[in-house]
Amino acid sequence: MTLTPPVGAQAELTSQYTGSVMNTFGPPKRVFVRGEGVHLWDADGNRYLDLLAGLAVNSLGHAHPQVIGAISAQLSTLGHVSNFFATPTQIALAEKLDALVTANAPGLPARVFFTNSGTEANEAGFKITRRTGRTRLIAMDGSFHGRSLGALALTSNPAYREPFEPLPGDVTFVPYGDEAALAEVLDDTVAAVILEPIQGENGVVEPPAGYLAKVRELTSAVGALLWIDEVQTGIGRCGDWLASSASGVTGDIVTFAKGLGNGFPIGACVATGPAATLLGPGSHGTTFGGNPVGAAAGLAVLGIIERDGLLQRVHEAGERLAASITALGHPRIDHVRGRGLLRGVVLTEPIAPAVADAALAAGFVINAPRPTVVRLAPPLIVPDAELDRFVAALPGLLDSV
Ligand SMILES: *Cc1c(COP(=O)(O)O)cnc(C)c1O
């Protein structure tokens, strides 16, 4: 199947886009006008299977009726108040997130700071680390933590960092997954170690088994905070509430965003134990963070994942998807990695961007975080039949480039 290339309404809208929007993302590959469940429609009327979910955002698919209902009900009751005040919705979401983060350490105190995005959640985390009385931070090679200056200082990609230097300082990068390399630079001058449980932007890279527990042990030994960035991996994406929870650890700081609001912008920085009280009155702030509409979206997402048993479903769907791609035995597929419904298809040649373009032309939205890796992050509700349709098309897509 090949769809109409963007010639009609899309071509016109693309030209308007490039004439009005800053060119930070390159020209848009498509202009989408509608979404429902796991499908998207472009401005020329073509339908796509969304296997990227707004980059791990639309966990419950597009236009989920209950999320819409929760957002509309909150918006028509109380849409916003300043952070001089609170709302029951915000408090309810705070309690839920704190409980999720401390699930491996019941009774451990936790507090949340709400934001509108992942990078802002990490800025809040960054400020918490500065309140430890130490300034050194350790981040990982291959990391991605966001584009604002603090989060960028923790992001390893030189192409993202270098044009904006000087960035907030005292950050050391070590190889991801290498506990000996971490142990070598870790001492009691280190405020925090930040890592992703799976590096999504780096091409869905997982550390060796036992690594997270070891990092927990090493950081605790020197009184450094363990800061886990769950912005992409959290809220069920990898089959657990937190991708890090299966390893039994509890972070001192845990950040969330992408999957939390199903598209409504919301992020959260949860801190536990002594870190939970390092930011006091006046030390940080936000106008929109904690907005009750965002909180209503977050509560709806958490409630639906729980009610529909989606964590178990994500485990099963993810395993089945990986197994069926592996079973293709295609010569251009090296292996499939990742967990739950965050998967990287590792190719034997640097053709992933071309494969993603071919997929789009055939009606599948995927992406290529690395030249050799295709990333799949479909809505958590994706039916097996839709995943099978993609797997059946994949050999043809790989052969076509
Ligand atoms: C996307 C992402 C961020 C940044 O989130 P934004 O909402 O784009 O600011 C931070 N950390 C990780 C791991 C991410 O994947």
Can you characterise this structure?
By secondary structure, the chain is α/β, with parallel strands linked by helices. It folds into two domains: 8-63 and 309-400, Aspartate Aminotransferase, domain 1 (Alpha-Beta Complex); 67-307, Aspartate Aminotransferase, domain 2. The chain contains 13 helices and 15 strands. It has a seven-stranded mixed beta sheet with strand order 4-10-9-8-7-5-6, sandwiched between helices. Strands 1-2-3-13 form a four-stranded mixed beta sheet. Strands 11-12-15-14 form a four-stranded antiparallel beta sheet, covered by helices on one side. Strand 7, helix 9 and strand 8 (225-229) form a beta-alpha-beta unit. The longest helix has 18 residues, at 310-327. The model has no long low-confidence stretch (mean pLDDT 97). Pyridoxal-5'-phosphate is lined by residues 117-119, 122, 144-146, 196, 200-201, 229, 231-232, 257-258. Pathway: Amino-acid biosynthesis; L-arginine biosynthesis; N(2)-acetyl-L-ornithine from L-glutamate: step 4/4. The modification N6-(pyridoxal phosphate)lysine is found at residue 258. It is found in: Cytoplasm.
Mean pLDDT: 97
Count every beta strand, where a strand is a DSSP E run of 2 or more residues. 15
Largest sheet: number of strands, sense, barrel closure = 7 strands, mixed
**Percent range of helical residues:** 25-40%
The level-1 CATH class of the largest domain = Alpha Beta
Query: Radius of gyration from the CA trace?
Result: 21 Å
The hetero molecules present are:
pyridoxal-5'-phosphate
State the CATH topology of the largest domain.
Aspartate Aminotransferase, domain 2
> Any idea how many domains?
2
State the separation between the terminal residues, measured CA to CA. Answer: 16 Å
Quickly give the structural class: alpha/beta
General shape: globular
CATH homologous superfamily name of the largest domain?
Answer: Type I PLP-dependent aspartate aminotransferase-like (Major domain)
Strands of the widest sheet, in order across it, are 4-10-9-8-7-5-6
- Poorly predicted runs: none
Measured by DSSP, the beta-strand proportion falls in 15-25%
Following the backbone from N to C, one meets helices and strands in this order, namely HEEEHHHEHEHHEHEHEEEHHEEHEEEH
Q: Based on the structure given, which CATH architecture of the largest domain is correct?
A: 3-Layer(aba) Sandwich
The DSSP helix count reads 13
